[in-house]
Amino acid sequence: MEHIHWYPGHIAKAEKKLKEQVNIVDVVIEVLDARIPLSSTYPDIEKLLRDKPRLILMNKADLANNEQTQKWVKVIKEKTNCPVIATSASDNKDLSKILNKVIELGQPKIIALVKKGLLPRAVRVMVVGMPNVGKSSIINKLIKKTKTKTGAKAGVTRDQQWVRINPKVDLLDTPGIIPLKQEDQNKAYKLAFVDSIGEHAYDVEAVAEIFIKNVCEIYPDLIRDYYKLEDEEVNISNIALKRNWIVQGGRPDTKRCAQNILNDFRVGRLGKLTLDVNE
Question: Which backbone phi and psi does 139 adopt, to 5 degrees?
Answer without folding.
Answer: -60, -45
